[in-house]
Design goal:
Layout: E1 3-7, E2 12-19, E3 23-24, E4 31-39, E5 43-47, E6 50-54, E7 61-64, E8 70-73, E9 78-86, E10 90-98, E11 102-104, E12 109-114, E13 119-123, E14 126-130, E15 134-139, E16 145-150, E17 152-160
Antiparallel strand pairs: 1-2, 2-9, 3-8, 4-7, 4-9, 5-6, 5-8, 10-17, 11-16, 12-15, 12-17, 13-14, 13-16
């Protein structure tokens, strides 16, 4: 089961997903995918070209949606954050911002998400407090610094492809 935090139809999706058993990943041909482990440990994504190591929490990985993947759980169930985007229409990025770190936002839509709570994020002089599983959609923030003042924030960014 996946819990969508935010989406824009079939263009992009940001959500939290539990992985409770090894198995095949869905085919998302034409999409770029990013994933970060937020609960548990020991997730490995087996592909025809080798492994994608997702064992370490809060270390994002990137892969193509058409990559054939079978998950392997080395230490029990895990939970991940997924960011997926139609590569013809958007570019995606997923970053981990820890207390004391700042990330400069670009054009597009940004999702600030707190996987474990509590956390705080300062934007344009305003402090936003998060509990576990809390999020904030940010638009019109090109050039803004996003400063994490406490905890850990995942920052998903979606930018339209120039035509």
């Amino acid at each position: 089961m996946s819990v969508d935090i935010a989406s824009d139809g079939d263009v992009w999706r940001f959500g939290r997903t539990p992985i409770t058993a090894a198995g095949r990943f869905s085919d998302y041909t034409g999409f770029d995918r990013m994933q970060v482990l937020v609960a548990g440990s020991g997730l490995v994504l087996e592909t025809p070209d080798g492994e994608i190591d997702v064992r370490t929490p809060f270390k994002p990985v990137r892969f193509a949606g058409e990559t054939r993947i079978v998950s392997r759980l080395e230490a029990g169930p895990v939970e991940v954050i997924n960011l997926m985007g139609d590569r013809r229409r958007v570019h995606i990025d997923l970053a981990v911002v820890k207390a004391g770190e700042t990330r400069r936002l670009g054009p597009g839509v940004h999702i600030a998400y707190c996987p474990t709570g509590p956390a705080r994020l300062r934007l344009q002089g305003e402090e936003h407090a998060f509990r576990a599983d809390g999020g904030l959609r940010i638009e019109g923030a090109d050039g803004w610094p996003a400063n994490c003042t406490a905890g850990v924030i995942l920052m998903g960014s979606v930018t339209c492809v120039s035509r």
